[in-house]
Write a structure and sequence with these properties.
Layout lengths: L1 H7 L8 E6 L4 E4 L1 H7 L3 H4 L4 H4 L4 H13 L3 E8 L7 E12 L2 E9 H48 L3 H25 L8 E3 L1 H15 L3 E7 L7 E3 L1 H18 L3 E16 L2 E13 L27 H11 L3 E7 L2 E9 L2
Parallel strand pairs: 7-9
Antiparallel strand pairs: 1-2, 1-5, 3-4, 4-5, 6-8, 9-10, 10-12, 11-12
């Protein structure tokens, strides 16, 4: 038994759900991703026939037997399997014949919805990297003439003897300063995280106190913490900025009136940036505001995209950058009356 476990140990590191069968179509091994997908324990299903584990798996079983005979694998992009008493799973399946001791078939399963989520995450990462490079180049190009513009306005102001004319130079100087701050914010995410041990609930409490001070009247912030969560390794200031930007965005969207919930949970067997993690921390920021307009819902993390008049459109972009620095993911679901930002960070 020890030899069999060591032979399959490499499969346990994969994010893809993998099932190994012998020549009689009995289960030899389920990796952790498969255990999570099918809500079944490797120990409990080992040595069971695959056909006994799923309802209406006859056609799939016939294809597997044909693979054993012909030695040729196949791909089924739209496989439907269901454990007894559970909802059907829509899966993408790859079957590969192998010869490794008793093992004869290796089957890879990926939940289609999960696959789409992973693909969306990969697209967001690629887009975010392109955005960061664009912003960095743009910010550098803008900073240089800004200094000259501000200096020229200061020199001009000294030559003016009328106060009403100096008001115009003050407008130029103040706007140049505002743009300078904006450029600094655009460039700041590129520093590497200063990693220390961080308690996520201390981060949430800090943000809660800041938001209640900023919106003292009609914002209620409820806590729903899992106090058993372990500490994580991360940049405390960046994580505070992530949560602050998301919570402040929610408060502003509700015009300072409504309820925000901060909820923490442990997430198991999570795939982040194509890497499987046994344990992760999940923080949800839920508000009962009007929701994100549908026209910008898919672009909410893009720079300079804002659903609020006068907004810079940088808060969520910076939040996404900092989360990605921590090898995590941030996503949002929104409808009128409920918006939920979900931040997932690996704990290992």
């Amino acid at each position: 038994m020890t030899d069999a476990l060591s032979r399959f140990s490499g499969l346990d590191l994969l994010a893809t759900a993998v099932v190994v069968l012998d020549g009689s179509m009995r289960v030899l091994h389920l990796n952790p991703a498969a255990e999570s997908l099918f809500t079944a324990s490797d120990r409990n299903v080992r040595d069971h026939l695959l056909g006994d584990l799923f309802a209406d798996a006859g056609e799939f079983g016939a294809k597997l037997r044909q693979t054993l005979v012909e030695g040729r694998g196949f791909v089924d992009p739209d496989l439907v399997l269901a454990r007894p008493g559970q909802e059907a799973l829509h899966l993408n399946c790859i079957v590969t014949p192998v010869e490794s001791g008793e093992a004869q078939l290796l089957i890879e399963f990926r939940h289609i919805e999960q696959q789409m989520r992973i693909e969306r995450e990969a697209q967001r990462i690629t887009q975010a990297e392109a955005n960061r490079e664009l912003i960095r180049n743009l910010a550098h190009e803008i900073k240089n003439p800004l200094g000259g513009l501000r200096g020229s306005a200061q020199l001009l102001e000294r030559e003016l003897d009328r106060a009403d004319l100096r008001e115009y130079t003050q407008v130029i100087i103040k706007e140049a300063d505002r743009l300078q701050v904006l450029m600094d914010r655009l460039l700041s995410p590129h520093r590497l995280p200063h990693v220390t041990t961080v308690n996520i609930h201390e981060v949430c409490e800090r943000v809660r106190s800041l938001i209640l001070a900023e919106f003292p009247k009609d914002i209620r912030i409820q806590r729903n913490y899992d106090t058993s969560l372990p500490e994580l390794q991360g940049d405390r200031e960046q994580l505070i900025q992530v949560v602050l930007n998301v919570v402040r965005n929610a408060a502003q969207a509700m015009n300072g009136k409504g309820e925000i919930i901060l909820a923490t949970r442990v997430a198991r067997q999570v795939t982040l940036a194509k890497t499987r993690h046994k344990l992760a921390l999940e923080l949800q920021v839920i508000d009962n505001g009007p929701g994100i307009p549908e026209s910008i819902r898919d672009k909410i993390f893009y720079p300079l995209v804002s659903g609020r008049e006068g907004g810079s459109g940088l808060g969520l972009t910076l939040a996404q950058n900092f989360v990605q620095h921590h090898h995590g993911a941030i996503e949002v679901e929104s409808q009128p009356g409920r918006t939920c930002f979900r931040i997932v960070l690996p704990l290992q």
